[in-house]
Amino acid sequence: MNESSSTITTRREFIKTTGRLAAVSALAGVAVPNVHAAGSDLVQVALVGCGGRGTGAANNALASTGGPMKLVAMADVFEHRLSGSYEGIKRQCGDKVDVPQDRKFIGFDGYKKAMDCLKKGDVVILTTPLAFRWVHFTYAIEKGLNVFMEKPLTADGPSSRKMLKLADEATAKNLKVGVGLMSRHSRPMEELHKRIQGGELGDIILMRGYRMHGPVGSAFSTKYPGGNPSELLWQISRFHSFLWASGGCYNDFYIHHVDHLCWMKNDWPVKAQALGGRHYKTSPEGQPYVDQNFDSYSVEYTFPDGSKMLLDGRCMNGCNDIYSSYAHGSKGMAIVAKANDCGTPSAIFKGQNMQRSNMQWMSKDIEGQKDPYQNEWNDLMEAIRNDKPYNEAKRGVQASVVSSMGRMAAHTGQEITYDDMLNCEHEMAPGVDKFTMDSPAPVKANKDGRYPAPMPGITTKREY
Ligand SMILES: NC(=O)c1ccc[n+]([C@@H]2O[C@H](COP(=O)([O-])OP(=O)(O)OC[C@H]3O[C@@H](n4cnc5c(N)ncnc54)[C@H](O)[C@@H]3O)[C@@H](O)[C@H]2O)c1
Fold first, then answer.
1. Is residue 264 packed enough to be buried (19+ CB in 10 Å), middle (13-18) or exposed (0-12)?
2. What are the φ/ψ torsions at residue 333 (nearest 5 degrees)?
3. Cα(452)–Cα(319) distance, integer angstroms
4. Residue 37: what pLDDT?
5. pLDDT on residue 38
6. Rounded Cα distance, 186 and 343, in Å
7. What atom in ligand 1 is closest to the CA of residue 81?
8. Between the CA of residue 31 and those of 38, 176, 212, 213, what are the distances in Å?
9. What is residue 40's predicted lDDT score, i.e. its pLDDT?
10. Distance from the alpha carbon of residue 303 to the mean position of ligand 1, in angstroms
11. Which residues line ligand 1 (CB under 6 A)?
12. Residues in the chain with pLDDT values less than 50
Protein backbone atom coordinates (compact mmCIF):
# COMPACT_ATOMS: atom_id res chain seq x y z
CA MET A 1 0.00 0.00 0.00
CA ASN A 2 1.47 3.39 -0.92
CA GLU A 3 1.49 6.21 1.64
CA SER A 4 -1.47 8.12 0.26
CA SER A 5 -3.75 5.11 0.08
CA SER A 6 -2.82 4.09 3.62
CA THR A 7 -3.58 7.49 5.13
CA ILE A 8 -6.80 8.30 3.27
CA THR A 9 -9.48 6.43 5.17
CA THR A 10 -13.13 6.73 4.25
CA ARG A 11 -15.55 7.62 7.04
CA ARG A 12 -17.20 4.23 6.73
CA GLU A 13 -13.83 2.49 7.19
CA PHE A 14 -13.04 4.83 10.07
CA ILE A 15 -16.29 3.95 11.81
CA LYS A 16 -15.65 0.25 11.21
CA THR A 17 -12.14 0.58 12.59
CA THR A 18 -13.09 2.65 15.62
CA GLY A 19 -15.99 0.24 16.24
CA ARG A 20 -13.53 -2.67 16.34
CA LEU A 21 -11.08 -0.62 18.41
CA ALA A 22 -13.85 0.28 20.84
CA ALA A 23 -14.70 -3.39 21.32
CA VAL A 24 -11.05 -4.26 21.89
CA SER A 25 -10.50 -1.28 24.16
CA ALA A 26 -13.59 -2.07 26.21
CA LEU A 27 -11.93 -5.38 26.99
CA ALA A 28 -8.55 -3.75 27.60
CA GLY A 29 -10.09 -0.81 29.54
CA VAL A 30 -8.47 1.94 27.45
CA ALA A 31 -10.13 4.95 25.83
CA VAL A 32 -10.13 5.37 22.04
CA PRO A 33 -11.16 8.41 20.03
CA ASN A 34 -14.90 8.53 19.49
CA VAL A 35 -16.37 8.67 15.98
CA HIS A 36 -16.20 12.25 14.82
CA ALA A 37 -17.07 14.01 11.63
CA ALA A 38 -14.36 15.25 9.33
CA GLY A 39 -14.78 18.71 7.81
CA SER A 40 -16.63 17.51 4.72
CA ASP A 41 -18.93 15.05 6.50
CA LEU A 42 -22.59 15.77 7.02
CA VAL A 43 -23.42 16.22 10.69
CA GLN A 44 -27.06 15.60 11.56
CA VAL A 45 -28.85 17.52 14.26
CA ALA A 46 -31.92 16.76 16.41
CA LEU A 47 -33.73 19.43 18.38
CA VAL A 48 -35.35 18.56 21.75
CA GLY A 49 -37.36 21.49 23.12
CA CYS A 50 -38.60 23.55 20.18
CA GLY A 51 -39.19 26.91 21.87
CA GLY A 52 -37.58 30.29 21.40
CA ARG A 53 -34.01 29.30 22.24
CA GLY A 54 -34.24 25.87 20.63
CA THR A 55 -35.29 27.48 17.38
CA GLY A 56 -32.43 29.99 17.66
CA ALA A 57 -29.89 27.29 18.51
CA ALA A 58 -31.00 25.16 15.57
CA ASN A 59 -30.61 28.16 13.24
CA ASN A 60 -27.12 28.74 14.69
CA ALA A 61 -26.26 25.05 14.26
CA LEU A 62 -27.29 25.05 10.61
CA ALA A 63 -25.40 28.30 9.97
CA SER A 64 -22.23 27.05 11.68
CA THR A 65 -19.00 27.13 9.75
CA GLY A 66 -16.82 24.18 8.88
CA GLY A 67 -19.01 21.69 7.06
CA PRO A 68 -22.49 20.57 6.07
CA MET A 69 -25.24 20.29 8.70
CA LYS A 70 -28.82 19.07 8.52
CA LEU A 71 -31.70 19.17 11.01
CA VAL A 72 -33.35 15.74 10.82
CA ALA A 73 -35.59 15.32 13.89
CA MET A 74 -37.53 17.43 16.40
CA ALA A 75 -39.27 16.72 19.71
CA ASP A 76 -41.49 18.75 22.04
CA VAL A 77 -44.36 18.20 24.45
CA PHE A 78 -46.58 20.69 22.59
CA GLU A 79 -47.45 20.17 18.93
CA HIS A 80 -47.91 23.92 18.34
CA ARG A 81 -44.43 24.70 19.67
CA LEU A 82 -42.85 22.09 17.40
CA SER A 83 -44.72 23.18 14.27
CA GLY A 84 -44.03 26.89 14.90
CA SER A 85 -40.35 26.16 15.40
CA TYR A 86 -40.20 23.94 12.30
CA GLU A 87 -41.74 26.69 10.15
CA GLY A 88 -39.31 29.27 11.51
CA ILE A 89 -36.19 27.14 10.96
CA LYS A 90 -37.38 26.03 7.52
CA ARG A 91 -37.93 29.66 6.51
CA GLN A 92 -34.42 30.61 7.60
CA CYS A 93 -32.45 27.51 6.62
CA GLY A 94 -34.36 25.98 3.67
CA ASP A 95 -33.07 22.62 2.50
CA LYS A 96 -30.82 22.20 5.54
CA VAL A 97 -34.06 21.17 7.22
CA ASP A 98 -35.20 17.63 6.50
CA VAL A 99 -37.77 16.79 9.16
CA PRO A 100 -40.72 14.89 7.66
CA GLN A 101 -43.81 14.21 9.77
CA ASP A 102 -42.48 10.85 10.96
CA ARG A 103 -39.43 12.49 12.51
CA LYS A 104 -41.48 15.01 14.54
CA PHE A 105 -42.18 13.61 17.99
CA ILE A 106 -44.63 14.88 20.59
CA GLY A 107 -44.55 13.72 24.21
CA PHE A 108 -42.20 13.18 27.13
CA ASP A 109 -40.53 10.23 25.34
CA GLY A 110 -40.02 12.26 22.16
CA TYR A 111 -36.40 12.97 23.09
CA LYS A 112 -35.52 9.28 22.74
CA LYS A 113 -37.21 8.97 19.38
CA ALA A 114 -35.51 12.11 18.07
CA MET A 115 -32.08 10.97 19.25
CA ASP A 116 -32.72 7.50 17.76
CA CYS A 117 -32.77 9.24 14.34
CA LEU A 118 -29.11 10.25 14.79
CA LYS A 119 -25.91 8.26 14.51
CA LYS A 120 -22.85 8.40 16.74
CA GLY A 121 -20.99 11.67 16.33
CA ASP A 122 -24.11 13.69 15.38
CA VAL A 123 -25.38 16.51 17.63
CA VAL A 124 -28.49 16.83 19.78
CA ILE A 125 -29.73 20.21 21.01
CA LEU A 126 -31.30 20.13 24.50
CA THR A 127 -33.35 23.28 25.01
CA THR A 128 -36.25 22.30 27.23
CA PRO A 129 -36.52 23.90 30.68
CA LEU A 130 -33.67 22.58 32.87
CA ALA A 131 -35.64 19.97 34.84
CA PHE A 132 -35.24 17.53 31.94
CA ARG A 133 -31.57 18.22 31.28
CA TRP A 134 -30.06 15.26 33.15
CA VAL A 135 -32.62 12.87 31.66
CA HIS A 136 -31.90 13.94 28.09
CA PHE A 137 -28.14 14.24 28.62
CA THR A 138 -28.05 10.68 30.01
CA TYR A 139 -29.61 9.30 26.83
CA ALA A 140 -27.40 11.42 24.55
CA ILE A 141 -24.29 9.99 26.24
CA GLU A 142 -25.68 6.47 25.97
CA LYS A 143 -26.18 7.04 22.22
CA GLY A 144 -22.67 8.50 21.71
CA LEU A 145 -24.01 11.89 20.62
CA ASN A 146 -22.37 15.27 20.87
CA VAL A 147 -24.52 17.76 22.76
CA PHE A 148 -25.41 21.42 22.84
CA MET A 149 -27.51 22.18 25.90
CA GLU A 150 -28.86 25.42 27.24
CA LYS A 151 -28.13 26.97 30.60
CA PRO A 152 -28.96 26.64 33.47
CA LEU A 153 -28.21 22.92 33.80
CA THR A 154 -29.57 22.27 37.29
CA ALA A 155 -31.67 23.84 40.06
CA ASP A 156 -31.03 21.50 43.00
CA GLY A 157 -28.38 19.35 44.70
CA PRO A 158 -29.38 15.89 43.48
CA SER A 159 -29.52 16.85 39.79
CA SER A 160 -26.25 18.82 40.09
CA ARG A 161 -24.51 15.75 41.45
CA LYS A 162 -25.97 13.63 38.65
CA MET A 163 -24.90 16.13 35.99
CA LEU A 164 -21.32 16.29 37.33
CA LYS A 165 -21.08 12.52 36.93
CA LEU A 166 -22.56 12.73 33.45
CA ALA A 167 -20.07 15.44 32.50
CA ASP A 168 -17.24 13.01 33.34
CA GLU A 169 -18.93 10.21 31.41
CA ALA A 170 -19.21 12.44 28.35
CA THR A 171 -15.48 13.24 28.56
CA ALA A 172 -14.62 9.55 28.98
CA LYS A 173 -16.56 8.85 25.77
CA ASN A 174 -14.80 11.72 23.97
CA LEU A 175 -18.12 13.47 23.32
CA LYS A 176 -18.11 17.20 22.69
CA VAL A 177 -20.49 19.22 24.86
CA GLY A 178 -21.39 22.88 24.48
CA VAL A 179 -23.39 24.75 27.16
CA GLY A 180 -25.29 27.92 26.27
CA LEU A 181 -23.32 30.27 28.53
CA MET A 182 -22.48 32.28 25.46
CA SER A 183 -20.55 35.06 27.26
CA ARG A 184 -17.62 32.64 27.16
CA HIS A 185 -17.70 32.87 23.36
CA SER A 186 -17.93 36.65 23.17
CA ARG A 187 -14.63 37.62 21.54
CA PRO A 188 -14.42 40.99 23.41
CA MET A 189 -14.98 39.21 26.73
CA GLU A 190 -12.33 36.64 25.82
CA GLU A 191 -9.88 39.49 25.34
CA LEU A 192 -10.97 41.16 28.59
CA HIS A 193 -10.43 37.85 30.40
CA LYS A 194 -6.92 37.59 28.96
CA ARG A 195 -6.12 41.15 30.04
CA ILE A 196 -7.47 40.60 33.57
CA GLN A 197 -5.48 37.35 33.89
CA GLY A 198 -2.45 39.31 32.65
CA GLY A 199 -2.81 41.61 35.67
CA GLU A 200 -4.27 44.78 34.11
CA LEU A 201 -6.75 45.22 37.00
CA GLY A 202 -4.39 43.97 39.71
CA ASP A 203 -6.08 41.63 42.23
CA ILE A 204 -9.86 41.43 41.80
CA ILE A 205 -11.53 42.57 45.01
CA LEU A 206 -15.15 43.10 44.01
CA MET A 207 -17.42 42.26 41.10
CA ARG A 208 -20.96 43.48 40.47
CA GLY A 209 -23.72 42.13 38.26
CA TYR A 210 -27.12 43.80 37.76
CA ARG A 211 -30.15 42.59 35.89
CA MET A 212 -32.99 44.88 36.85
CA HIS A 213 -35.96 45.53 34.59
CA GLY A 214 -39.70 44.98 34.44
CA PRO A 215 -41.31 41.53 34.62
CA VAL A 216 -40.29 39.30 31.68
CA GLY A 217 -40.79 35.71 30.55
CA SER A 218 -43.12 33.61 32.68
CA ALA A 219 -41.66 34.63 36.06
CA PHE A 220 -44.99 35.80 37.49
CA SER A 221 -48.13 33.67 37.14
CA THR A 222 -51.72 34.03 38.13
CA LYS A 223 -53.81 30.95 39.02
CA TYR A 224 -53.81 27.80 36.87
CA PRO A 225 -57.06 28.12 34.93
CA GLY A 226 -57.68 24.34 34.89
CA GLY A 227 -58.63 22.13 31.96
CA ASN A 228 -56.29 21.71 29.03
CA PRO A 229 -53.30 21.79 29.20
CA SER A 230 -52.89 19.73 32.33
CA GLU A 231 -51.37 21.42 35.38
CA LEU A 232 -48.03 19.71 34.64
CA LEU A 233 -47.93 21.03 31.07
CA TRP A 234 -49.11 24.45 32.23
CA GLN A 235 -46.25 24.61 34.74
CA ILE A 236 -43.81 23.58 32.01
CA SER A 237 -45.12 26.30 29.70
CA ARG A 238 -44.65 28.85 32.54
CA PHE A 239 -41.34 27.37 33.68
CA HIS A 240 -39.81 30.60 35.05
CA SER A 241 -42.54 30.55 37.72
CA PHE A 242 -41.53 27.16 39.15
CA LEU A 243 -38.28 26.32 40.90
CA TRP A 244 -38.44 22.65 39.91
CA ALA A 245 -38.64 23.54 36.22
CA SER A 246 -36.12 26.37 35.89
CA GLY A 247 -34.61 27.35 39.24
CA GLY A 248 -36.93 30.36 38.97
CA CYS A 249 -36.06 33.78 37.63
CA TYR A 250 -32.87 33.91 39.71
CA ASN A 251 -31.21 30.98 37.94
CA ASP A 252 -32.71 31.57 34.55
CA PHE A 253 -32.10 35.31 34.29
CA TYR A 254 -28.97 35.89 36.39
CA ILE A 255 -26.74 32.91 35.58
CA HIS A 256 -24.98 34.70 32.70
CA HIS A 257 -23.62 37.41 34.99
CA VAL A 258 -22.78 34.87 37.69
CA ASP A 259 -20.90 32.79 35.13
CA HIS A 260 -18.96 35.46 33.28
CA LEU A 261 -17.92 37.29 36.46
CA CYS A 262 -16.63 34.03 37.97
CA TRP A 263 -14.78 33.46 34.70
CA MET A 264 -13.07 36.85 35.06
CA LYS A 265 -12.07 35.86 38.60
CA ASN A 266 -11.10 32.32 37.46
CA ASP A 267 -12.81 30.90 40.52
CA TRP A 268 -16.17 29.99 42.03
CA PRO A 269 -17.49 31.52 45.28
CA VAL A 270 -17.61 29.36 48.40
CA LYS A 271 -20.64 30.95 50.09
CA ALA A 272 -23.50 33.41 49.71
CA GLN A 273 -25.74 35.53 51.90
CA ALA A 274 -28.67 37.37 50.45
CA LEU A 275 -31.71 39.60 50.73
CA GLY A 276 -34.85 39.22 48.70
CA GLY A 277 -38.58 39.67 48.83
CA ARG A 278 -41.84 39.85 46.98
CA HIS A 279 -43.21 43.38 47.03
CA TYR A 280 -46.05 43.04 44.53
CA LYS A 281 -48.36 40.11 45.00
CA THR A 282 -51.10 40.85 42.50
CA SER A 283 -51.13 41.36 38.74
CA PRO A 284 -52.01 44.81 37.31
CA GLU A 285 -55.53 43.36 36.82
CA GLY A 286 -55.73 42.57 40.56
CA GLN A 287 -55.34 38.78 40.26
CA PRO A 288 -53.15 37.17 42.94
CA TYR A 289 -49.75 35.93 41.75
CA VAL A 290 -49.23 32.29 42.69
CA ASP A 291 -45.65 31.53 41.52
CA GLN A 292 -42.53 30.80 43.62
CA ASN A 293 -40.30 33.81 42.77
CA PHE A 294 -39.28 36.89 44.69
CA ASP A 295 -39.39 40.08 42.64
CA SER A 296 -36.07 41.35 44.00
CA TYR A 297 -32.83 39.63 45.00
CA SER A 298 -29.54 40.98 46.31
CA VAL A 299 -26.86 38.37 46.80
CA GLU A 300 -23.36 38.77 48.23
CA TYR A 301 -21.03 35.96 47.20
CA THR A 302 -17.63 35.33 48.84
CA PHE A 303 -14.64 33.79 47.02
CA PRO A 304 -11.97 31.65 48.74
CA ASP A 305 -9.63 34.70 48.95
CA GLY A 306 -12.34 36.73 50.72
CA SER A 307 -13.18 38.93 47.73
CA LYS A 308 -16.84 39.53 46.92
CA MET A 309 -19.32 39.39 44.05
CA LEU A 310 -22.67 41.20 44.31
CA LEU A 311 -25.59 40.15 42.17
CA ASP A 312 -28.71 42.32 42.14
CA GLY A 313 -31.79 41.11 40.30
CA ARG A 314 -35.16 42.83 40.11
CA CYS A 315 -38.30 42.30 38.02
CA MET A 316 -40.26 45.47 38.74
CA ASN A 317 -41.67 48.24 36.59
CA GLY A 318 -41.01 51.91 37.27
CA CYS A 319 -37.64 51.40 38.98
CA ASN A 320 -34.12 52.22 37.85
CA ASP A 321 -33.29 49.64 35.16
CA ILE A 322 -29.69 48.38 35.09
CA TYR A 323 -28.45 45.40 33.08
CA SER A 324 -24.64 45.28 33.06
CA SER A 325 -21.63 43.95 35.00
CA TYR A 326 -18.33 45.24 36.44
CA ALA A 327 -15.07 44.01 37.98
CA HIS A 328 -12.93 46.03 40.41
CA GLY A 329 -9.27 45.31 41.05
CA SER A 330 -6.48 46.83 43.12
CA LYS A 331 -5.23 48.77 40.05
CA GLY A 332 -8.37 49.50 38.09
CA MET A 333 -11.85 48.47 37.08
CA ALA A 334 -13.55 46.94 34.05
CA ILE A 335 -16.92 47.07 32.38
CA VAL A 336 -17.47 43.39 31.71
CA ALA A 337 -20.90 43.41 30.01
CA LYS A 338 -21.81 46.93 28.88
CA ALA A 339 -25.44 45.92 28.42
CA ASN A 340 -27.54 42.78 28.73
CA ASP A 341 -25.87 39.42 29.29
CA CYS A 342 -22.69 40.06 27.32
CA GLY A 343 -23.19 43.24 25.28
CA THR A 344 -20.12 45.09 24.05
CA PRO A 345 -17.90 47.04 24.41
CA SER A 346 -16.00 45.78 27.42
CA ALA A 347 -13.49 48.31 28.78
CA ILE A 348 -10.70 48.76 31.32
CA PHE A 349 -10.19 51.94 33.38
CA LYS A 350 -7.35 53.13 35.59
CA GLY A 351 -8.65 53.54 39.16
CA GLN A 352 -12.28 53.02 40.17
CA ASN A 353 -13.98 55.79 38.18
CA MET A 354 -15.45 54.90 34.81
CA GLN A 355 -14.59 58.21 33.20
CA ARG A 356 -13.36 58.46 29.63
CA SER A 357 -10.03 60.04 30.64
CA ASN A 358 -9.27 56.94 32.74
CA MET A 359 -10.01 54.47 29.95
CA GLN A 360 -7.05 52.28 29.07
CA TRP A 361 -8.66 49.79 26.70
CA MET A 362 -11.97 49.30 24.96
CA SER A 363 -12.90 46.14 23.07
CA LYS A 364 -13.53 46.11 19.34
CA ASP A 365 -15.91 43.69 17.66
CA ILE A 366 -14.37 41.22 15.23
CA GLU A 367 -16.13 41.22 11.87
CA GLY A 368 -17.93 37.91 11.33
CA GLN A 369 -17.66 36.99 15.04
CA LYS A 370 -19.97 39.55 16.62
CA ASP A 371 -22.65 37.10 17.67
CA PRO A 372 -21.65 34.93 20.67
CA TYR A 373 -24.62 32.61 19.99
CA GLN A 374 -23.12 31.85 16.57
CA ASN A 375 -19.55 31.74 17.89
CA GLU A 376 -20.48 29.07 20.47
CA TRP A 377 -21.72 26.85 17.65
CA ASN A 378 -18.72 27.50 15.40
CA ASP A 379 -16.44 26.63 18.32
CA LEU A 380 -18.36 23.44 19.14
CA MET A 381 -18.45 22.26 15.52
CA GLU A 382 -14.76 23.03 15.08
CA ALA A 383 -14.02 20.75 18.05
CA ILE A 384 -16.32 18.03 16.69
CA ARG A 385 -14.87 18.11 13.18
CA ASN A 386 -11.26 18.23 14.36
CA ASP A 387 -11.72 15.90 17.34
CA LYS A 388 -10.48 18.40 19.91
CA PRO A 389 -11.32 18.02 23.62
CA TYR A 390 -14.43 20.12 24.31
CA ASN A 391 -16.76 19.72 27.26
CA GLU A 392 -18.40 22.71 28.96
CA ALA A 393 -20.75 20.60 31.10
CA LYS A 394 -18.81 20.67 34.38
CA ARG A 395 -18.45 24.42 34.48
CA GLY A 396 -22.09 24.72 33.36
CA VAL A 397 -23.07 22.75 36.46
CA GLN A 398 -20.75 24.85 38.64
CA ALA A 399 -22.34 28.07 37.37
CA SER A 400 -25.76 26.52 38.03
CA VAL A 401 -24.82 25.53 41.60
CA VAL A 402 -23.47 29.05 42.29
CA SER A 403 -26.74 30.49 40.96
CA SER A 404 -28.78 28.10 43.10
CA MET A 405 -26.79 28.94 46.24
CA GLY A 406 -27.53 32.65 45.82
CA ARG A 407 -31.20 31.87 45.29
CA MET A 408 -31.33 29.52 48.27
CA ALA A 409 -29.58 32.09 50.49
CA ALA A 410 -32.29 34.63 49.62
CA HIS A 411 -35.13 32.14 49.90
CA THR A 412 -34.07 30.73 53.29
CA GLY A 413 -32.44 33.80 54.84
CA GLN A 414 -29.40 31.65 55.71
CA GLU A 415 -25.76 31.71 54.67
CA ILE A 416 -25.43 28.94 52.08
CA THR A 417 -22.09 27.45 51.07
CA TYR A 418 -21.31 25.89 47.70
CA ASP A 419 -21.13 22.50 49.43
CA ASP A 420 -24.46 23.07 51.23
CA MET A 421 -26.09 23.66 47.84
CA LEU A 422 -24.40 20.79 46.05
CA ASN A 423 -25.23 18.36 48.87
CA CYS A 424 -28.75 19.66 49.62
CA GLU A 425 -31.11 16.68 49.44
CA HIS A 426 -34.20 18.61 48.29
CA GLU A 427 -34.96 17.07 44.91
CA MET A 428 -37.39 19.44 43.22
CA ALA A 429 -38.65 17.20 40.43
CA PRO A 430 -38.47 13.58 41.60
CA GLY A 431 -39.40 11.08 38.88
CA VAL A 432 -38.90 13.61 36.07
CA ASP A 433 -37.48 10.80 33.93
CA LYS A 434 -40.81 8.97 34.12
CA PHE A 435 -43.18 11.85 33.38
CA THR A 436 -46.08 11.15 31.02
CA MET A 437 -48.77 13.50 29.76
CA ASP A 438 -50.95 12.35 32.70
CA SER A 439 -48.37 12.79 35.48
CA PRO A 440 -49.24 15.12 38.35
CA ALA A 441 -47.32 18.40 38.58
CA PRO A 442 -44.32 18.39 40.96
CA VAL A 443 -45.76 21.30 43.01
CA LYS A 444 -49.38 21.51 44.09
CA ALA A 445 -51.39 24.65 44.70
CA ASN A 446 -53.25 25.26 47.98
CA LYS A 447 -56.98 25.96 48.05
CA ASP A 448 -56.36 29.54 46.91
CA GLY A 449 -54.36 28.36 43.91
CA ARG A 450 -51.00 29.44 45.41
CA TYR A 451 -47.89 27.29 45.13
CA PRO A 452 -45.48 26.84 48.07
CA ALA A 453 -43.40 29.99 48.35
CA PRO A 454 -40.10 30.58 50.15
CA MET A 455 -40.33 31.91 53.73
CA PRO A 456 -36.88 33.20 54.82
CA GLY A 457 -36.20 32.50 58.50
CA ILE A 458 -39.08 30.02 58.73
CA THR A 459 -38.36 27.43 56.05
CA THR A 460 -34.58 27.23 56.28
CA LYS A 461 -33.38 23.74 55.28
CA ARG A 462 -35.06 23.80 51.90
CA GLU A 463 -36.63 26.57 49.84
CA TYR A 464 -40.28 25.50 50.13
N1 LIG B 1 -28.43 31.37 26.47
C2 LIG B 1 -29.43 32.21 26.44
O3 LIG B 1 -29.24 33.42 26.34
C4 LIG B 1 -30.83 31.72 26.55
C5 LIG B 1 -31.90 32.50 26.09
C6 LIG B 1 -33.19 32.01 26.22
C7 LIG B 1 -33.42 30.78 26.81
N8 LIG B 1 -32.35 30.04 27.25
C9 LIG B 1 -32.59 28.73 27.91
O10 LIG B 1 -33.16 27.83 27.00
C11 LIG B 1 -34.10 26.97 27.67
C12 LIG B 1 -35.45 27.11 26.97
O13 LIG B 1 -35.88 28.43 27.07
P14 LIG B 1 -36.90 29.07 25.99
O15 LIG B 1 -36.91 30.52 26.25
O16 LIG B 1 -36.58 28.56 24.64
O17 LIG B 1 -38.28 28.44 26.49
P18 LIG B 1 -39.52 28.02 25.61
O19 LIG B 1 -40.66 27.74 26.53
O20 LIG B 1 -39.71 28.97 24.49
O21 LIG B 1 -39.02 26.62 24.99
C22 LIG B 1 -38.92 25.42 25.71
C23 LIG B 1 -39.54 24.33 24.86
O24 LIG B 1 -39.29 23.05 25.45
C25 LIG B 1 -40.50 22.29 25.35
N26 LIG B 1 -40.45 21.25 26.36
C27 LIG B 1 -40.63 21.37 27.70
N28 LIG B 1 -40.45 20.18 28.31
C29 LIG B 1 -40.14 19.29 27.33
C30 LIG B 1 -39.82 17.90 27.34
N31 LIG B 1 -39.77 17.20 28.47
N32 LIG B 1 -39.55 17.30 26.16
C33 LIG B 1 -39.58 18.00 24.99
N34 LIG B 1 -39.88 19.33 24.94
C35 LIG B 1 -40.14 19.96 26.09
C36 LIG B 1 -41.59 23.32 25.57
O37 LIG B 1 -42.85 22.87 25.14
C38 LIG B 1 -41.06 24.50 24.73
O39 LIG B 1 -41.45 24.40 23.39
C40 LIG B 1 -34.10 27.43 29.12
O41 LIG B 1 -33.23 26.62 29.87
C42 LIG B 1 -33.56 28.84 29.06
O43 LIG B 1 -32.91 29.25 30.23
C44 LIG B 1 -31.08 30.48 27.12
1. buried
2. -130, 165
3. 27
4. 75
5. 72
6. 9
7. 39
8. 20, 15, 47, 49
9. 72
10. 31
11. 48-54, 75-78, 81, 108, 110-111, 127-130, 132, 150-151, 180, 182, 236, 252, 341
12. 1-33
